[in-house]
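Hi W.,

Here's what went into the run:
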Amino acid sequence: MPTETFEFQVEARQLLQLMIHSVYSNKDVFLRELVSNASDALDKLRLASLRDDAPDADVTDLHIEIDIDSNARTLTVRDNGIGMSYDEVTQLIGTIANSGTAKFLKELREAQDAAGADGLIGQFGVGFYSSFMVADEVTLVTRRAGETQGTRWTSRGEGTYTLETVDEAPQGTSVTLRLKPADSENQLHDYTSTWKIKEIVKRYSDFITWPIRLVPEAKDGEDEAREPETLNSMKALWARPRDEVSDDEYHELYKHISHDWRDPLETIRLQAEGTFEYQALLFVPSHAPHDLFTQGYQRGVQLYVKRVFIMDDCEELLPPYLRFVKGVVDAQDLSLNVSREILQQDRHIRMMQRRLTKKVLATVKDLRTQDPDRYATFWREFGAVLKEGLVIDSDNRDVILAAASFASTHDAQEPTTLQQYVERMKDGQDDIYFMTGESRQAIENSPHMEAFAAKGIEVLLLTDPVDEVWVDAVGEFEGKKLRSVAKGEIDLGADEDGKADAEKEKQGEEYAGLLGWMTEHLGEDVKEVRLSSRLTVSPACVVSDAGDLTPALENMYRAMGQEVPKAKRILELNPEHQLVKALNQAYTERDDRTELTETAELLHTLAVLAEGGQPKEPARFVKLVADRLERTL
Ligand code: ADP
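Here's what came out:
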């Protein structure tokens, strides 16, 4: 087949441009990325052979090899792993499947300065393409294990690449970089230096479980090829004594398995002895991935059996609400042939999941008390996911609640725990109050909060979609009910000025006629009109009935495709407000109801608007208000 030239997909082209002109300060990581890919390819081949999926593959002496040619200024990273077919090369190397890339590129274009761009590249990680930070031409030759023909891919990173089929290609993949000139200004090191390569491999890839060999360059006058030198210790980090492994080493393993270029927030080690022995090395990332809440998010840790890689994204080892956790679990007593189906039924796997879950939750809980700053980062990034556990994992509910924190009216910056809330509760306050909404500001400005603000009663401000759900699932904390300030009847006890129940009753009688008439008149939209004890400033607000879904929850169910009836809400009036007083007076004194009917309607719409809702008929609302305004001039 002749050499054919192809164009990169748009995103790939943009990404390559960025790599070529990269300002990323740590260019050494290109080698880590190539070694990481090579190691994955070896893992995949061994796994295929364990499963008898690769009958014609050669699995003796699986390794990675690095070759330097200083005269030609080339560096080659070679593996004899699974390799790629012609089609796989086009799919995997010519295009970028990662859905986050488009977002990444947009942010990168918007990043004004080099430091911003640097941070963004580190945030997304770019794998194979990072070669173009240090090379002006890259050639990849690969042959899929078991196939006869290979494929050569080559590119200068500028818009196009070429592909050709080759007859003579060793099994696996070799990537050859034609290096840019070394240059101190761009922090470009001399990657033809043996010393430099050894240092980089030691620093970033020591734990790789395959030998990484450096083939020495033949010196002038030497005919004999010299013995390759193995650069890495190959020891699985989770099998080494804890105090022998440095944080940096853990962090590099994290980067290898997560494809994140940043350090993790927390490293968790667990060693289980006994009848079912396993080691786990788990990581909490320092940033939530952009697709954490999308449907296809690949969750799970890597599963090893006796040091042999078995699968990526093993979902069975952690519950969905810990889907941000990365890491490795190495089990001694599973079969190398273990499949997803077996894992789903295995009793030991369920026990592992329970144990790992408890360990992660305990770590978060400790972080909260021992390192508030890092805890704050954790909660900002993953709090919304962890709270899903309150709904689906009732066994661990208490520890999740203890690890959780919430924004509150008590402090504009510092979140609070439920425990702290309870300790601050006022005498006579029986419930824990919260309000859900779009944002802190929207909630704070909502009329429902008025009486709470006036009385200095603390309210939790919940703004994550999951908040609508867990509060119902949890119900109470230490015997105190969790109550929405926008739901049901609220009785905050006697007012500041000591208004007694008797007086309230009198007020009720005074308004009974108006309330009954309005309930009937607005009956299409509201369940009931009643007097409010939540309001101090606004004339009216709408609240949900105690047992009903809130509008946000209704929307959530609809978004998930479920049909839910629209629950009618309750309109509450503030009997101390001049408008409401005047309305009542007009109701008792006048027989003509036309004006009143409009006012009642307006009052209802104002209440809807005040909580951030939409008028049912915006045009009609505008007309009514405009008419009224006109009459005031
Ligand atoms: P990532 O490693 O983050 O998936 P890369 O751009 O580095 O992204 O690689 C894309 C894909 O190309 C890999 O997922 C893998 O399937 C394939 N690939 C890369 N290098 C190799 C290799 N040495 N051997 C086999 N496949 C490889």
